[in-house]
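REQUEST FORM: STRUCTURE PREDICTION
Request ID: SP-0412
Submitted by: Lab K.M.
Chain count: 1
Length (residues): 298
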Amino acid sequence: MELRHLHYFIAVAEELHFSRAAQRLCISQPPLSQQIRDLEDELGVKLFERTKRQVHLTEAGKVFLERSYGVLAQLEQAIIVTQQIGRGEVGRLAIGFVDSAMYTLLPEIVRVFREQFPAVELRLHELTTQQQIQALHHKQVDVGIVRSAIIEPGLSVECFLPESLVLALPETHPLSAQTQVSLSTLASELFILFPAKMGPVFYEQIINICQQAGFRPKVAQEAVQMQTIIGLVAAGLGIAFVPASLQNFHRSGVIYRPLQEQIPKIGLYLAWRQHDSSPVISAFLSLARKTTWRGVKS
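STATUS: Completed
RESULT:
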């Protein structure tokens, strides 16, 4: 039995007239009649009662018509779902992200993705860069949003949002009176840094910036979460270099100042498994790029 047999049968059952059904199917009547006889022979039952003037469905034909509608409806739904999966509109997506990403365009990207792909089950996991690398390798997350241009076998990495670094200071700090701060004035300051083992690239970038200014930072405290770093700054335990987007995190007792010197930008990077061809992942990456481009342009 082929799918066309169901279409032929349904056309005759709905028209109850072989000539009209043939016209509807754009075929001649004799082949249609033969196809219906072949179908009846295969099923071993009569589907139609035929007279010279009328065609009627048998009881078996009525049941077969109802089930044929169901088969075609299921097939149509299967086609729709398959096409949606192929376009990345259905499925699951686990996203890892560093906490500071929440102060950039990430909430907007997630909002737009939910609007455009409501059938995708979206899961967000706040993880450090190193944790995301492991989670990507173990397929615990599908896309990572990390703070450094990691070089890791099997992973693709792409910068999608470059950012400047700013200095977070206690509001009572003497340097808070300046509109811009020079690196040369920070040699004797105590710093709060992100741990090297949790984000080695970001950590080394901060160290290199200070060393190029002629000093190595004195570390008073380390903290994993950017909110914690800002909290420690507010407590007066030290100063910290943070992404410019952290200025969106308003904490009493803390002010932010740009640096006088031109220093390398940091960025947010998309990370994903190189050979993962999931349409859902591709859809998210594409949307993230477009949303970021619009955000930067505006």
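NOTES: The chain has a mean pLDDT of 89.
Reviewed by: T.R.
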